[in-house]
Amino acid sequence: METSAKPSNNNIGRKIGRIREMRGIKQEALAAELGVSQQTVSRMEQSETIEDEVLDKVAKVLGVPADAIKNFSEDAVINIIASTVNNHDQAASVFFYPTFNPIDKLMELVEENKKLYERLLMAEKEKNELLKRK
Asked: What is the CA radius of gyration of the chain?
């Protein structure tokens, strides 16, 4: 009888751990979002199976569908990365195509900043008026 050293592809906990790592999320951060301890997350990542309700919560925190966790395959991820890498240049290319106009967003932030400044100014004026009355 021969045992395989390769971990089971159906180990849901290991899949959660790999996706968490790929997303750059620490166990502590995931635990805080789920309202559990880091040790609970560690045990979860070592589990073969996880209740669907817990899986849904984890998936929401990780920003992926629960089915993506269930069907996660590290080999598939490696194949996708390998097929999209352009080896003709030494620089990594990152393309960002926002679905919004970044200038419009910037202007929204500027307007919001103005409103906050005006509210702060009004609060200071009210405070000064109160101090003058005393």
From this structure: 25
Average pLDDT over the chain, rounded to an integer: 80
pLDDT digits (tens, 9 = 90+) for 57-107: 998 888 888 888 888 777 766 665 556 555 555 455 556 666 778 788 889
User: How far, in Å, CA of 56 to CA of 42, rounded?
Assistant: 17
Q: State residue 82's pLDDT score.
A: 59
Instruction: Kindly report the number of other CB atoms within 10 A of residue 44's CB atom.
Output: 21
- Cα separation, 118 vs 24, whole angstroms: 38
The domains of the chain are located at 12-84, 96-134
Reference 13, options 64, 70, 88, 75; nearest CA is 70
CATH superfamily of 12-84: lambda repressor-like DNA-binding domains (1.10.260.40)
